[in-house]
């Protein structure tokens, strides 16, 4: 639940999109607890890996976009851009994400002085 963010820190959210642009069932409790409790996340930094399919243009990567939106509303600060993976592009998400995460870790080190490793 949202208490996972209570101590602050650095988080990477990786989520797909389900149904009509919703977060998947395994992330629903976290998302809903953030919406309900509305904690102050000003001591949180985060990144988002959003998985989707451009075939569904209106809801493409909405699961990740929803997390990005709620985290920002609660005061968390995103590091880098949201990674949007398109399943219809024929690329494997883990391959695209591995490259993106390397860049994200470098940004974290630069902006936060974090000694993170991939």
Features:
38% helix, 118 residues, Rossmann fold, 4 strands, alpha/beta, 19% strand, 4-stranded parallel sheet
Please write out the topology.
Elements (H helix, E strand, L loop, with lengths): L8 E7 L9 H13 L6 E9 L9 H12 L3 E2 L4 E4 L6 H20 L6
Parallel strand pairs: 1-2, 2-3, 2-4
**Topology-level CATH name:** Rossmann fold
Overall morphology:
flat
CATH architecture: 3-Layer(aba) Sandwich
Cα radius of gyration in angstroms: 14 Å
User: What number of structural domains do the residues give?
Assistant: 1
Spatial gap, N to C terminus:
25 Å
The CATH homology group name: Flavodoxin domain
CATH class: Alpha Beta
Largest sheet: 4 strands, parallel
The overall pLDDT, averaged over residues, is 91
Strand content: 15-25%
Query: What is the structural class?
Result: alpha/beta
Helix share, percent: 25-40%
Strand count: 4
How many helices? The count is 3
H/E element string?
Answer: EHEHEEH
Poorly predicted spans: none
Write structural notes for this entry.
With 118 residues, the chain is of the alpha/beta class. The chain has a single domain, classed as Flavodoxin domain (Rossmann fold, 3-Layer(aba) Sandwich). The chain has three helices and four strands. The protein has helices spanning 25-37, 62-73, 93-112; strands spanning 9-15, 44-52, 77-78, 83-86. Strands 1, 2, 3 and 4 form a four-stranded parallel beta sheet that branches. The chain starts with 8 loop residues before the first strand and ends in a 6-residue tail after the last helix.
